[in-house]
Amino acid sequence: MSFRQIQERSVKYVLAGAASTSIVIVALIFLFLFREALPFAKDPGLGALVGSRWMPKSFQGAGYGLLPLITGSALVTVLATLIAIPFGVCGAVYIAEVAGPREREILKPFIELVAAIPSVVLGFFGLIVLAPIIKSAFGLMSGMTALTGAVLLALMAVPTIISISEDAIRSVPRAYKEASLALGANRIQTIFKVVVPAAMSGIIASIMLGMGRVVGETMAVIMVTGNAAKVTLSPFEPVRTMTATIAAEMGEVPFGTAHYRALFWIGIALLIATFFINLVALRVLKSYRRA
Amino acid sequence: MGTLKERAAFIGLRIITYVLVSIVGYIILDIVVRGAGVISWSFLTTYPNPDGTGGIFPAIVGTFYLVMGTILVALPLGMASAVYLTEYAKQGLLTNQIRLAIVTLAGVPSIVFGLFGLGLFVLFLDFGTSVLAGSLTLACMILPTIIVSSEEALRAVPQSLREASLALGATKWETIRKSVLPYAIPGMMTGSILGVGRAAGETAPILLTVAAFFLPQLPRSIFDQAMALPYHLYVLATQFPNAEAVRPTQYGTALVLLLLVLGLNIGAIMVRMHFRKRNRW
Question: What is the reported pTM?
Fold first, then answer.
């Protein structure tokens, strides 16, 4: 074998090795989450995670029930998605079908820039500006509510929804539109009865990817949702999400305690939840791209 | 000219879109206007006080170190992965596994990266809460961003360039090095800057792996704790929420962080536009 051949081969193996680190990292994430979490299964046992009492520091019997954290995350996520859908979908339709070319070239990068605003900055804005607005608008005792967090999270989901939905809408074949217009439908009928339905799976995938982002978001919610671990479905009450619980409690918990390990179980639950949301979204997106 | 109904619908869509744009504009403006007066040379170059007032110099330095460490690890790994996936990988089990892993990594919540970094780097490898542990954690987090955008950049290089080079007798690696990479590097840079912007603004992972709120000295080695801008803002905002005295420092820190991250992103967009104009195939 010549030097050139050896060089060619070794380059290939080095690059393959580099590419495989992604697999290694994913494996290590699972490994190390479980490594820290598993001893919890012996003491106090996995059954302790089922329940509606999250009071890991209580002296009269600590409670590790995840229910209030799961309902907290679910409530904030659902609210945020409901707020984000009209803005995201209408924004995408507007940018793809109504806006002129120059307007589009400004709007799209601007919306995508929003995705880059650090969540801690949004959380800070929410704390100082939005929470007082929500407090007075709804006559509440405190502005630190599930709704406040949901509004911030909606802002973080909207760029994802717009970006992917707009691509989906724009990739609907021209012929569909032309056929519809030729049959006498006006532009609005064409957009909402032909173009949007044709792009629907892309739009649904974008909403799901937005949700995936929302479920895993930490800083914006920890700063504005009030962090009370109780089961509630009211948008006007404080809630504590799974992410916020980890971020808030990991700093002060002694390593190796049951409380510490319970926080890793929350991480595993989050990891699995986001994994499935993203997986389904990407399946939808892929099947749609093939069609 | 459409019917009245049609025009009303278009106006409705426009209003919704511009309400969104104004909300975002308002947030940015609020931080710019209330933060601009705070930023001064001494704010940027002095140390903070324990009561939350004072400068943010160590937080800026800490974020700079973290970002540098993240780039050093994630950039070579991400670019090499992208070259492998676009130029070498054939359909097969390994390639599919790599793709699934990248998609999975891209969806992992940042706080879970924090837990992972804590478990692996801080505790198991015993780096302690340190710049090193934080940089490695952030590098894992932005790896998918760098890989995906680098792949796009590589795919955008026309196949004919590769064929011409191979036809002249160059080997595959020579072709990649001399005919593909030079044209793909600007696109790869764009993606990397976007990833770096994300690393600079993230709080949750460093919360568990690096962070120190009040540290009257700079980190002297990669095994030291460090302050960081996003974490500093988080603590300022939550530990002193009603203290009017801290409000200016809060807004100043928020503005510096916002400018840093948006600046990186706008820079990336400009790099992309510049080279799109140059490379017209």
Answer: 0.91
**Residue A55 phi, psi dihedral angles, 5° rounding:** -140, 70
* Tokens encoding A248: 């808030």
pLDDT per position as a tens digit, B95-152 = 889 999 999 999 999 999 999 999 999 999 989 889 999 999 999 999 999 999 899 8
Amino acid in position A227: N
Give the one of B88, B108, B207 whose C-beta lies nearest to A29's C-beta: B108
**Which residues of chain A lie closer than 8 angstroms to B6, CB-CB?**
186-188
Task: Give the Cα separation of B141 and A202 in Å (integer).
Answer: 26
Angle at which helix B57-83 crosses helix B247-278, to 10 degrees, equals 30
| Spacing of C-alpha A207 from chain mean position | 10
Say which residues have a Cβ less than 8 Å from residue A31's Cβ, sequence separation at least 6. none
Residues of chain B with pLDDT under 50: 1
Which chain A residues are closer than 8 Å to B84 by Cβ? 12, 15-16, 18-19
Domains of chain B: 55-278 (1.10.3720.10)
Contact A60, A213 (CB under 8 A): no
The minimum CA-CA distance between B97 and chain A, rounded to whole Å, is: 7
Q: How far apart are CA B212 and CA B226, in angstroms?
A: 6
- The Cα–Cα gap between A30 and B190 comes to 31
Rounded distance between C-alpha atoms, residue B246 and residue B249, angstroms: 5
CA gap B281, B274 in Å, rounded: 15
Query: In this complex, how many residue pairs, one in chain A and one in chain B, have their CB atoms less than 8 Å apart?
Result: 246
Closest approach of B39 to chain A, Cα-based (Å): 16
Interface test with A, best of B17, B145, B181, B242 (most A CBs within 10 A): B17
B207, B210, B212, B218: CA torsion to nearest 10 = -150
Return the structure tokens found at B1: 């000219």
CA B127 to chain CA centroid, nearest Å? 23
- Picking from A90, A120, A121, the nearest residue to B13 by CB comes out as A90
**B144 close contact with A: CB closer than 8 A:** yes
The complex scores an ipTM of 0.91
